[in-house]
Amino acid sequence: MTARMHENNERLGFAGLILPVALFTIWYIATLDGGVPAYLLPSPLDLARTAIDFTAGSERLSPYSGTLLVHTIASLQRVLTGFGLAAVIGLPLGFLTGRLALAKSSLDPTVHLIRIIPGIGWLPLAMVWFGVGEKTTVFLISLAAFFPIYVNAAQGAASVSPMLIRAGRMLGANDLAIFTTVIIPASMPSTVAGLRLGLGLSWAYLVLGELTGVTHGLGAVMMDARMLGNVEMILVAMIFIGLFGRISDLILTSSFRKLNLLKRSYEE
C-alpha cells in the first residue's frame, strides 16, 4: 500500500510539471527570433539574465543591479508588519464572533460591509490619512489580510462540536480553559486556511501599497521599471514576489504542522 501511494504521489508530481513546461515551451518559441517583440514579452534567456543581475549585480544591466536583497528586506518588513497586525486583531475577534452571539450581532454586519469595499477603494483615503509611503502600505496590507483571517477564525470557532465542549466541562474546565484548550485547537484547520489566505493577500496588496511612492521594495521596482519601459524588470519583480509569497506560505504551514506534532508528542 505504501509503495503504491508513493508511486501515485510521484505521478501527481510529474503531472504538475506538464503545464509549466508547456507554457515555458510556448513562451520560448513565441519569443524566438523576435516573433514577439521584446518590449512586449522578453525571452526566457533575457529574463534569466535580468534576474541574475538583479540578484548578484554581475552584469550591470540596469539601475537595479545587485539590489534584490535591499528591496526584498523592505517588502518583507511591510508584509510581516501588516500581516502580523491583521492576525493579532483578526484572530481574537474571529474566535469571539464564532462563539458569542453578542459579538456576532455587533461585529459581523459591520465587518462584512467593510469587506465588500475593494482594497483599491481604500487607497485614496489611506493616502489622505497616512500620506505616501510606509504607513499607507502597511495599512492596506493589514486591511486586506484581516478579512480572511477573521472570517475563517469565526467559521472555525462556530463549527466546533458541542460534544467536545461538553467533554471539557465534564473534566472541570472553566470558560477560559474551554476557549484555550478546546475551541481554539479544534478550529485550527479553518484558522490556518484563513492565515494562508491573509498571507497571500498581504503579498498582493504589498504591490498596491508600494506603487504609491516608496523608495525601496519589489513593488517600487515594478513601478520604476514601468516608467522606464523595462519589461524584464517588471516580470522579474513579479516572479520574486510570487516566489517569496510561496516560501512564506510553506514556512507558515510547516510551522503549524510542527507545532501540532510537538503538541501531540507532549500529550503522549
Automatic annotation (TrEMBL):
GO biological process: transmembrane transport
Pfam families, sorted: BPD_transp_1
Keyword hit for Glycoprotein: no
Top-level taxonomic group: Archaea
Keywords: Cell membrane, Membrane, Transmembrane, Transmembrane helix, Transport
Gene3D superfamilies, per database record: MetI-like
Domain ABC transmembrane type-1: 72-252
Membrane protein topology class: Multi-pass membrane protein
Cellular location(s): Cell membrane
Main location: membrane
Membrane spanning residue stretches: 12-30, 79-101, 113-132, 138-164, 203-222, 234-256
Cross-referenced CDD domains: TM_PBP2
KW Ribosomal protein (keyword) present: no
Annotated InterPro entries: MetI-like, MetI-like_sf
Entry GO CC: plasma membrane
PANTHER family: ABC TRANSPORTER PERMEASE PROTEIN MJ0413-RELATED, ALKANE SULFONATE ABC TRANSPORTER-RELATED, MEMBRANE SUBUNIT
Family statement drawn from the similarity comment of this UniProt entry: Belongs to the binding-protein-dependent transport system permease family.
Name the record gives this protein: NitT/TauT family transport system permease protein
Originating organism: Methanolobus vulcani
